[in-house]
Amino acid sequence: MPSNQKFQNSVTEEYCSDKFTFNYNEKSHKLDMTPKNTENILNNNSELEIFEKQALEAYSEAFEKYKPQEIAFCFDGGKDGHVVFHLLKNFLQKNKSSVMPDFKILTVNIIQNDTDLLPEPRELVKKLTEEYSSYIKYQEYTNLDIKSALYKLKEDHNGIKAIFMGVRRTDNVWYKDMTVFQRTDQGWPDYVRINPIVDWSYPCVWAYLLKYGIKYCELYDEGYTSLGKKSNSVRNEYLKVDVEFGEGSRKECYLPAYCLPSAEFERFKR
Q1: Which has the least CB within 10 A, 2, 4, 36, 122?
Q2: Angle 202-211/45-65 helices, nearest 10 degrees?
C-alpha cells in the first residue's frame, strides 16, 4: 500500500481531500476513489438543485415554442453535452406522449476531422443514441467545420429551427453574454441555440453526472478534463498525483476529471 500521495498542486489537494479517500489499486495501477459523502459527493447539491430546475424549465419552454421536428441536439460525447443529453432523455421519457408521439429528435455529431479524432466520445454518442433510439435518431457530419456542417444540416433538414447545445459560459470568452435561447450570429445558418446549462459551473456538471451514476466517457477517469481533437487533448497536469511507496519507489497517477475544482484549469493546453 502507498505511504503517501503528493498532489501536483495544492489547489487540487485542498478540493479533493475533504471529499474523497484514495487508495492505489495494484491491479489497475490507478487510484480508487471513495466519496466521503455518497449523498452529496462534491458538496454542492443545493447549487445543483437550482440549476436542474432552471434547465428543466428551459426544456419545457423549448417544446412549447417548437415542434419536435423543429428541434435538434448537437452532441459530441463530451461531459457538458452528456448532461444536456441526459436531461433531454428524461424530459422525453416523461413527456413523450404529449410532446412527440410519432417523431424522433435528431442528434447531430459534427466531426471536423475524422483523422484527428478521439474514438471514445464518438462511440459513446453512437451507443447512447442506439440505446434510446425509440425517440432519438443520429446523424454525423464529418470533415466539415461547424459552420459548414450547420449549413449542411439546414439543407438536409430544413425544418429544424432550434438546436440544444452543451455550452457553458466559462467555455470561451465569446459565451460570456450567452443566453439560454439565443439566435446564431449574422453570417451563420439561422438557428436558435438552446443552452440549458449555460450558467452551470464545472463542479455542477460533474455533480450531476455523479449523482445519477451516468456512464460518461472513460477518458475523464484518466485525467482528461476537456476533450477535443486527438492532437490537442491531453491529461490535465493539475490532476497529477505522485504515489509514494516504501524505499523511495513512486508511481505517477491522474485523478478523475471531477477532482478539478473549477473551470479555470479545465482546458489545460487546449
Answers
A1: 4
A2: 90
Whether the CA torsion 61, 66, 67, 73 is positive or negative: it is negative
Task: List the chain residues with pLDDT less than 70.
Answer: 1-3, 97-101, 245-248, 268-270
Position 270 scores a pLDDT of 52
Q: What's the whole-model pTM score? A: 0.92
Q: Which three cell numbers stand for residue 102?
A: 410519432
What's the structural domain count of the chain?
A: 2
Do 113 and 162 lie in a common domain?
A: yes
- Look at residue 250 and tell me if it is in a domain: yes
| Cell (9 digits) for 259 | 477532482
**Structural domain that includes position 225:** 4-21+36-43+213-265
Sheet-wide strand order for 250-254: 4-7, 240-244, 250-254
Angle at 172 between CA 167 and CA 174, to 5 degrees: 95
Burial code of 14-28, b = ≥16 C-beta within 10 A, e = fewer? ebbeebbebebeeee
DSSP string of 138-149, one letter each residue? EEEEES--HHHH
Phi, psi of 121 (to 5 degrees): -60, -40
- N residues, the chain: 270
> Does 78 lie in the same domain as 179?
yes
Taking the alpha carbons at both ends of the chain, their separation in whole angstroms is 35
Determine the Cα–Cα distance for residues 4 and 137; give it in Å rounded to an integer: 49
Summarised one tens digit per residue, pLDDT across range 178-217 is 999 999 999 999 999 999 999 999 999 999 999 999 999 9
What pLDDT shows up at residue 207? 97
Name residue, grid cell 442528434: 107
